[in-house]
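Dear support,

We are seeing what looks like truncated structure output for some complexes. This example has two components. We would appreciate it if you could run it in full and send us the complete token output so we can diff it against ours.
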Amino acid sequence: MANRQKRPRLLAVASGGGHWIQLLRIAPAFGDCDCAFVCTLDAGDQVGGHRFYRVPDANRWNKLAVIRMSLTVLGIMVRERPAIVISTGAAPGCIALLFGRLIGAKTIWLDSFANVDTLSMSGRLAGRFADLWLTQWKHLAKPDGPHYEGSVI
Amino acid sequence: MIFVTVGVQLPFDRLVGAVDTWAGTRDRSDVVAQIGASKYVPKHIRCQATMTPTEFKRCVTEATAVVAHAGMGSIITALELGKPILIMPRRAALGEHRNDHQMSTARLMAEQNIVTVAQDEDELVDYLDRIETLGRSAGISSHAGSQLVGRISAFIAEVDRRR
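Here is the complete output from our reference environment:
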């Protein structure tokens, strides 16, 4: 389908639990993009027939797990070649934004609603790779980002 | 059925233990729990470590009330399905989380009257005894507000235009 080729490819990434649920709540914004979803839990039945990939979870205290997760994300990135990468956290999303940037995609980070007092570690780091860098709390917004544009609730 | 959930990443023995003891003393056999990495072995409640997001949603759907840590997945799912939710935040001082963001989440949500917050196990038991009378949350729609959705979709449209 020629038309299908023209739709931008979007890769949406989140860890299981709250990050994932917040990602699904912003999915209406993806419009008619050609979407693929990535989660650390087996959530393939929640993405309405879009492509789905599972990645191993990792946090910054387990370096081996971070490497394994990063390689999986890299593989997905090479296969998907997205024009847009979006994440609500945490570590796998941050890595996805980094790789997305490297392949020339535009990137969006929406920091979790749970980060009320300060941005998460991955949220601060993702700020370096995010073209659109958002917090869900007005009091955490700054002129150079993260910006506040409403919340998932 | 009362559904208890503490997320998948970190143990929360204080909550699981308190609910289990409560279920034993009150002879409640209708408590189901997703206990993640908790070490405590429940004697009175049915539990499993993890579940898929779809199984999780089914448990919340079938529950009359949800008891949880102050995690966004638990809170948002309960709100989307209009279920009363009782939360006890994890405390960093007790090694239950890396920082006290769950205390902040709990405080902000309690201020908006959308959740009931127990600060400790004693309060938790008090609320559990009247869990059937806890206010049903007004419910929220299944997607984010128009400001956020609009901003992200405008960004995507701009990327598409420039390709």
